[in-house]
Structure formats: C-alpha cells, structure tokens
Amino acid sequence: MKDLYDSMERENDLKDQLKFSEEEAKMMRRRVSDMDEENESLRVQLQKMSEKASKHKKREKEREKQLEEERKEREVRTANLAKDEGDTGSLSSDVILVVGAEGSDVISSDEPIPITQRKDSTDEDLMNVMQLRIQLEMLEQELLNSHKKLDEMDLENENLQEEVKFLQGRLTAYESQGSGPRDPPPEGSGSAAESYWEEKVRELAAEADDLRWRLIEKDREMERIAVVSGNSYS
C-alpha cells in the first residue's frame, strides 16, 4: 500500500505542475499580446516616418533644383556684368559664391561644395526608418516563433491532461481492487498475488515519473521562451 500512496502523491504533484504550466502559458499569451501591440505600434511609426522622409526628400530635391537654377542665373548675370564693365577681376579668385542652406552662404575655397554633398535631416530620417524597419523585422520573427511555441505548448498541455486523466483512472481502478476482496492467489501461492499488485504499482510509478520529466522539460522550454520574450523589451 505504501507504493500506492507514493503513486497517488506523484499524481498530485503532476497535477500541481500541470497547473503551474498552464499559468505559465497564460503569461506567455499576455506577453505575445503585448508584443503584437508593440508590433502594430512600430508599423504605424514606420509608416509615418517613411511618409515624412519621402515628403522631406521630395521638398529637398525641389529646393535643390530651385537653388541650382538661381545659382546659374547669378553666374550669367555676373558674367554679363563683368563683360559690360570690362572688369573680369572684380571678384576675388579665392572667394567662391556657393548656395548654402539659406541660399546665401559665401565660403573661401578652391572648389565649390556640390549641393548633393550638403548634409540635411533627410539622411537622418532615412537612417531612422532603416533602423526601425530592422527592429520591426526582428520583432515579427520573435512573434512568429512565440506563436509557434504557444501552439506546441497548447498541444502538449492537452496531451499531459489526457495522460493525467489516464493515470487517475489507473490509480482509481487499482485502489478499488485493492480495497475489495482479492482473487485467490494463483495455484495457492500466497506471494503470487502480492507480486502481481507490486508490479502494477511499479508500472504506474514509472508512468508517473515519465510524465513528471515531460513536465520538467516543458517548464524549461517555457523559461527559454520567457527569456526570449523578455529580451525583446530590453
């Protein structure tokens, strides 16, 4: 009977572990839900930044085109003025008029700075969009893996519940047979029946141990998933 009580204790322990496993699965679902919301927020933010960068880039191109036309017009006017006055040295050779951010920058240089090399906020916006897109792709991959793990956990939970029910039925049947009148020992042997029931108890204990290890492995797998989900918020 001691082996029977040990098996019952193992069964209760397995039920407690299964309950804990279900609670962990609920926590994982909440984390995945939060990750879904963050994913949607990143999508909206990425769309806004992409639209902003596109509009900014378009305005910059139009502005550069306008400044380039104004620069050419000034060069033509300057050349015509110098030709009319006969004074080609009226401008210093080391001072070159370059259209800057405000259209009136004058710098000393041997070579004018091309307009395409000027730094503006467009480059920074594009860089932010790229970084946000990479972050979004990583989050989507983590979400995909988390959803897959949750599906596997749900299936494993169902299997564990079925095994626990089966084990409960076996224990109940054994308990019922052990409490009632037993069949006479085969061939009049007093130890044959006892050996038979001891073997049944060992089988049930082996099944309970196997189920326990499966639950332990499941807990470890859930801990790994929790770590991965936690890293996505850091």
Topology (SSEs and partners):
Layout lengths: L1 H84 L9 E3 L8 E3 L12 H59 L12 H40 L3
Antiparallel strand pairs: 1-2
Helix pairs in contact: 1-2, 1-3, 2-3
Description:
The structure is a single chain. The chain has helices at 2-85, 121-179, 192-231; strands at residues 95-97, 106-108. It is mainly α and 234 residues long. The protein has one domain. It has a two-stranded antiparallel ribbon. A hairpin with an 8-residue loop joins strand 1 (95-97) and strand 2 (106-108). Helix 1 (2-85) packs parallel to helix 3. The chain is rod-shaped.
Summarize the structure.
With 234 residues, the protein is mainly alpha-helical.
Please report which band the strand proportion falls in: under 5%, 5-15%, 15-25%, 25-35%, 35-45% or over 45%.
under 5%
Q: Give the CA-based shape.
A: rod-shaped
End-to-end Cα distance:
53 Å
Report strand order across the widest sheet: 1-2
- Give start-end ranges of low-pLDDT stretches: 88-113, 179-190
Provide the gyration radius in Å: 39 Å
How many beta-strand segments? 2
Question: What is the arithmetic mean of pLDDT?
Answer: 66
**How many individual domains?**
1
> What is the chain-wise order of helices and strands?
HEEHH
The assigned structural class equals: mainly alpha
- Number of distinct helices: 3
